[in-house]
Design brief:
It contains one helix and 21 strands. It is mainly beta. The strands form five sheets. The protein has a five-stranded mixed beta sheet, with no helix packed on it. Strands 2-3-10-5-8 form a five-stranded antiparallel beta sheet, with no helix packed on it. A five-stranded antiparallel beta sheet has the order 13-14-21-16-19, with no helix packed on it. The N terminus is likely disordered.
Length: 237
Amino acid sequence: MRWLLLLGLLVSGSFAPAQTAAEISGEPHHRLLLENSEVRVFALALAPREQAYVQHTHNFLFLPLQDGELVLWSAGTSAVQHFLFHRGQVHFWLGARVGGMRNDGSATFRAVIVEFLNPKVTSYGYQYQSGTWDYGSGAINAPVDPDAKFIDEMAIGAASVADVQLLTADTYPPPRKEADELLIAVPDLDLRANDDTLIHKASGDVLWIPAGRTWPLTNVAGTAARFTVVALWKAGN
């Protein structure tokens, strides 16, 4: 699977010249969007030929905002391998690593990165398919029908993440148990809350929803609404 190949970059590859990694909050291509006791959220913008070399302390999500291609490498490996990314496709990567990325494309590559401050947000857990404790999937598969409504989820320990698309007037339900939620707009987004409050977010904007949402979110735009929702389960759930 492609996510296994991505993880393999952490431990394989030919030797590369030493580089100095920056902590993500000090890396100039990353801009802090939101920070609280559970997450740090960054906007990434890499212009053509630019690169970022980052020390990742925490496990994190990587959410591309458009289709694109990046060169990815890890400490001690060569910056030669290209990877394709698709708009809105969620990737979960483990922290405690140094990684680099370079944009060899002709347009600026944009993404949102969500760092999890709780180490229990992880892909490691009991895998029912194999009956063993191991690392699970690191990505949500592409939707079967990209033009239809879909809600595709991935469990990541003390949280879950959903890749969501709503057609006009479709709704996204409240979480099945108590959770804080982080909503990330992929294209521009227009939703309605239960009290007729309108929520407008531009591509890459984020919205923090404290635990207690019991009402659906409705797409009030004339086009499909694509967004990602991270649910961070409260203790005991």
